[in-house]
Design goal:
mainly alpha; 9 helices
């Protein structure tokens, strides 16, 4: 638990998604998940989701290399990942509901303050995929012991106040 708190502190000091941030995140993922193929699957999924989000939001430029990497991930690497192949019947409905929550978050970010708060929570639905992966690889008891820390570390890059600033001009 102390390592997770230290990693959270380090991640908050780093620029989100910087190389240093990714290194801390990747070390923590390996500790939580304990399965190299499961970590690779989650990282491929995360990269695809980030690129897809940037394409939909149109809030920052995306390189052709990032688009190509995302397409390879979703069309080649993820479907052939041994961890995913073994657990696809468990993971697919969770991924489905995470995508649906993300789509709802994009709608609610245009609404009232209550809807914006709901959007902020829903946009982190991908964490449920990671918690499911941890549950599969390490068991429910372990997943419960790290669940709050996982949410803190994975979602540490943006406070609610920062999110409100980001969507203030969204109509």
């Amino acid at each position: 638990m102390r390592d997770e708190i230290d990693n959270l502190s380090r991640m908050k000091q780093l620029d989100w998604d910087s190389q240093s941030w990714r290194e801390v995140r990747d070390r923590q993922l390996k500790e939580w998940v304990g399965d190299e193929n499961a970590v690779r699957f989650f990282l491929d999924l995360s990269h695809f989701v980030e690129i897809y989000d940037d394409l939909v939001d149109q809030d920052k430029p995306i390189s052709n290399d990032d688009i190509n990497r995302a397409l390879f991930a979703v069309l080649c690497y993820m479907p052939s990942n041994p961890f995913f192949l073994q657990h696809r019947l468990t993971l697919t409905p969770i991924i489905f509901t995470s995508i649906n929550a993300w789509a709802d978050a994009n709608e609610f970010q245009h609404g009232t303050m209550s809807e914006k708060a709901l959007a902020y929570g829903l946009k982190g639905g991908g964490v449920e995929v990671l918690l499911s992966i941890i549950s599969i690889t390490r068991g429910v008891e372990y997943m419960r012991s790290v669940s709050a820390a996982v949410r803190r570390i994975i979602m540490a890059h943006e406070t609610f106040e920062e999110y409100l600033e980001e969507v203030k001009d969204v109509v």
